[in-house]
Write a structure and sequence with these properties.
The chain is of the alpha+beta class. It is 56% helix and 12% strand. A four-stranded mixed β-sheet has the order 1-4-2-3, sandwiched between helices. α1 crosses α4, α1 runs antiparallel to α5 and α2 packs parallel to α3. The chain is globular and about 30 Å long. InterPro entries: Ribosomal_eL30-like_sf, Ribosomal_eL8/eL30/eS12/Gad45.
Length: 104
C-alpha cells in the first residue's frame, strides 16, 4: 500500500473520531459487531494472538470487513486514544475505508 493511502486512512480515522462515528475498546467493539452496528473494524497488526483470533473470527461470522494494516501506535496516534481495536459505525466512513484500503 502506498504511503499516501496510509496517511489518508489514518487522517480519515481521526476525522471519524471527531465526528463521533467510532467505537473503541474490545468489549464495546465486540458488542457492536454482534449487533451489526459496526460496519468496519480496525484491528492492530501487533495485537495479541487471542485478541486477533477473537476479532477476525467475529468479523468473519458477522460479515464485517476487518483491516489489520496498522499497528497499535498508528491507530492510537490517529485517534488520540490508546486502542488495539476500533469499530466504524457510520456506513459512509466504512465504504471510504474499504475503497482506500483496496487501492494499492
Amino acid at each position: 500500500m502506498a504511503k499516501s493511502n496510509d496517511q489518508q486512512v489514518l487522517s480519515l480515522l481521526g476525522l471519524a473520531r471527531r465526528a463521533r462515528q467510532l467505537v473503541s475498546g474490545e468489549a464495546i467493539v465486540l458488542k457492536n459487531i454482534q449487533t451489526n452496528q459496526a460496519k468496519f473494524v480496525f484491528l492492530a497488526k501487533d495485537a495479541g494472538k487471542a485478541t486477533s483470533k477473537k476479532f477476525t473470527d467475529k468479523c468473519h461470522t458477522y460479515h464485517v470487513p476487518c483491516s489489520q494494516e496498522f499497528t497499535k501506535s498508528q491507530l492510537s496516534q490517529a485517534t488520540g486514544q490508546s486502542r488495539t481495536v476500533i469499530g466504524v459505525v457510520q456506513p459512509g466512513f466504512a465504504r471510504k475505508f474499504e475503497e482506500l484500503l483496496r487501492m494499492e
